[in-house]
């Protein structure tokens, strides 16, 4: 998809910052594309960029309104439809990462046709995928996995790509969710793929490559999450990772959206290895990535040092402290 930039990020009236993680991810990794944000009354998310109306954004040259939110079921609330129509009337295109297709809403479809604007449903692909085959393919792959949803799998994969390229390594980020697709301009949102074809879509996304080329594959969900483990398993089998990084948010007491305690990092490592061996017999853990935003620096470093000792793996906060140690381990293990 070639979505015209720059963007106005629509946050609606989401209840917390995580519910705007698509918008936050785009703002963090493509800040030059984000002119401002549009928030409704009661919105609890903030990208720390200017608040703009549709008219103000148009005057500043915005070309696309991006619905940068996630919610249970990926639905488009009725009270957001008017904002989308206003953007179309103002001459903007509209892009969404929700499951609800923009064109399935009559008022939006009619306005887009009337004003000659484009609708981009980033979560949906016109690509047809085969079922996964599990056949070994050339090239190397790292998959980010998690103790829960929204724990930094995408940010870790992007940080790894950046560090590896800086070292002159052949590396590409492979997006498996709507935010990653917005950031990279390519990829497939696996949670919108029919279940039988998830592994095949992951194989398609990370094809055979040169022996020294690395794909950094964005993880989804968690093998332990009762809502999303199906997507996680299909991605694990299709990605056929040589190595994986466990991503974790240490302040949570239960998994996001369900009444279930978080698994331990050791449990995630063990289950990922056992399930991953189905298609990648040599799969092994590379390290641990932790979102330490809730900790001061001294506490964060002490926590990471403890994890490294307990698991015998490098542990870091990719945004706060970088991923140099993870890439060092990668080069040592696969040289």
UniProtKB/TrEMBL annotation:
InterPro entries linked: DgcN-like (IPR011669), DgcN-like_C (IPR035086), DgcN-like_N (IPR035402), P-loop_NTPase (IPR027417)
Domain of life: Bacteria
Domain annotation D-glutamate N-acetyltransferase-like C-terminal: ranges: 129-327
D-glutamate N-acetyltransferase-like N-terminal domain: residues covered: 40-124
Pfam families (UniProt xref): DUF1611, DUF1611_N
Stored PANTHER family: DUF1611 DOMAIN-CONTAINING PROTEIN, GLL3100 PROTEIN
Official protein name in the record: DUF1611 domain-containing protein
Species this protein is from: Telmatospirillum siberiense
